[in-house]
TrEMBL record:
Underlying gene: speE
Assembly information from the UniProt record: Homodimer or homotetramer.
Metabolic or biological pathway, per its Swiss-Prot or TrEMBL entry: Amine and polyamine biosynthesis; spermidine biosynthesis; spermidine from putrescine: step 1/1
Matching NCBIfam families: MFS_SpdSyn, PRK00811.1, speE
Positions that bind S-methyl-5'-thioadenosine: Q43, E118, D149, G150, P174
Name the record gives this protein: Polyamine aminopropyltransferase
Length: 286
């Protein structure tokens, strides 16, 4: 029996991580070192040191974030809703175990309280220890870590948060219900009357069906719904989508509201232009 999980292969003395993306595609990364590998109660958790992307968090064989490009996703999913809401004081993050989103949200002085609901404490502990480039060794007393299923957590909430960020893994296993209609209804209830929510809505290149379904589900509930994109090299397809639901504020001329947060990817031009969609996405969302 191999000493490695099936998605790590030894080829000519070199280690490779291979992600099975789809039936017809695999993505492989050359691995320098396995820093951590253990089964948690929910998933297989690994931190790898890879040649091109540095420290990399892998859950059940799927790359979640890396020290080289993780900031793109984490900044985009955090700063767009945080800029849209004029005064975000209470924030809920669901998922987000690598702590990259919480790190970005703590850059807002007006935020008083952040509930971070992650199903797997293992991911948080390992990311704080081995992935400081992403987690920033987060230690901010406004962050309240809650280890439970985000689906259950939002069931009984009403009128509580200004901003909700769903930083989930792909819609399989524990994250599947984080893409369901009922979950979005509960998020809508959990938001204040002028609240804003955002979720990652997958690759428009490979999973336009999921992107479209997410958009439609959120659009059925919120008066203002918008999709924006960013290019994340380690996510299959590169182009990644985020769907925003807002009860009151429109992301119009949003660049004008941007305030510098010492970011590496987001700037005024990105905030302004990220809602411009390629033609195939516009056509598919009709
Ligand atoms: N940025 C990443 C991506 O798009 O691949 C996702 C980052 S984050 C690591 C995703 C987190 O969601 C994981 O740590 C996972 O444990 C958590 N998660 C999955 N299902 C969950 C649920 N039902 N409730 C709360 N957290 C969940």
């Amino acid at each position: 029996m191999s000493k490695f999980p099936s998605y790590i292969q030894e080829v000519d003395g070199e280690l490779w991580l291979t992600e099975d993306e789809r039936d017809n595609m695999k993505l492989s990364y050359r691995v320098k070192d396995i820093i951590f590998a253990e089964q948690s109660p929910f998933q297989h958790v690994m931190i790898l040191d890879t040649y091109d992307f540095g420290r990399t968090l892998v859950l059940d064989g799927v790359v979640q974030t890396t020290s080289v490009d993780g900031y793109i996703y984490n900044e985009m999913i955090s700063h767009i809703p945080m800029t849209l809401h004029p005064n975000p004081k209470t924030v809920l993050i669901i998922g987000g175990g690598d702590c990259g989103v919480a790190k970005e949200v703590t850059k807002y002085d007006q935020v008083e309280h952040i509930d971070m609901v992650e199903i797997d404490k293992f991911v948080v502990d390992v990311s704080l220890k081995y992935l400081p480039e992403v987690s920033g060794n987060l230690s901010d007393e406004r962050v309240n870590f809650i280890y439970t299923d985000g689906v259950k957590f939002v069931q009984e909430l009403e009128n509580k948060y200004d901003v909700i960020i769903i930083d989930s893994s792909d819609p399989v296993g524990p994250a599947e219900q984080l893409f369901s209609e009922e979950f979005y209804q509960n998020l809508h209830k959990a938001l204040k009357p002028d609240g804003v929510m955002v979720c990652q809505s997958q690759s428009p290149a490979f999973h336009m069906d999921v992107t479209k379904q997410t958009y439609q589900r959120i659009n059925n509930l919120f008066p203002i719904t918008s999709i924006y994109t960013a290019v994340v090299p380690t996510y299959p397809g590169g182009l990644w989508s985020f769907t925003l639901g807002s009860k009151k504020y429109e992301p119009k001329n949003l660049g004008e509201k941007w305030q510098d947060k010492s970011t590496k990817y987001v700037n005024q031009g990105i905030v302004e232009s990220c809602f411009v969609l390629p033609e195939f996405m516009k056509n598919n969302l009709k």
